[in-house]
Sequence to fold (335 residues):
Amino acid sequence: MASQTPTTSSSSERSSEFLDKQGCVLQKVTELKDYARKFHESAPTFNNDCYSRRASVFLEEIDQLSRRMNDFFSIDHTSIRIASWNIQAQNKEYDEPIDRICSTIKHYDFDVIGIQEIGAQGKNLTSILKILNEDGVYESNLPEHGEVHIGGTFLWKKYSVSLEEEDSVNKKIQDKYVFQNNINCTQFKIKGTGKFFAIWNFHFTRRDYLVKKFCGLNGIRCNDKEQKYLYKILDQKEYDLRKTILLGDFNTIPEPCTQDGKKFNPMFDESTPTNTSRTATYDNIILPEIMGRCHREVGNIYSEKDKSLTMEDAQAVSDHLPIFVDIPFNKFVSH
Fold:
């Protein structure tokens, strides 16, 4: 008997199959919601308060399930949303800004977010994770010790990506170059695709900050030194530069650069201010040119009621806005 060659369904066939299953699931949820509504409407005829309360709870839970299922299927499952946000958490000694940071992250449904200024020992980030993880969605490589007032870390959705490798390269970089704040370098794997990418999370000093305190170089601006060595530090890790992303609070607009034959381009320029007062572009996400131009956006800050805050209220949370890019899976080249 001739051996049969296994067939592999095409991406269009898999997409069609997914849409069919999606429609089937949503139809079943709709039918269940209709049943719950009839159940609730019939409750008063039994003249039983306990029965009525249970019917109300049942309807409310089905409504929540229906909304969550619709939200899930509205997501683009062919791209990943990567964000950067200086949340200034070290200044937050009360709950409202923390709640609004969480509301904003939930609103935009970031898959991976590089965060700067997470607070001493990550105290406030722990509070943020507690709120975000009511549904067990997010994970973090929060530093377990040490002063991390200015430095950064990552949050990621464990259903979207998995942590493959992490390395706080602050000490080795700081010994060789001029970087005041810690630099977090982390590699992720996109679940269900086998594709990898690396992210470097930076927080540069202000342009008017002199490095005399650190290096004895009177009059040399620390930010200028950091900019000079921004791309050179990529040599510290053996990641594929075609799948390497740089993001963070650079306190200026980084210059495009070519490193090891790979060109990198900032996604945000002076036409897309990233501070809350919309006057300057401090934050950026830098992609290798091979990825091309992806959808980019400067977000807003949201309240718990999913309402965009006024500038005054937003500034009470942070003087930076979240920024993000949506990168299609096919932009990540295979090994």
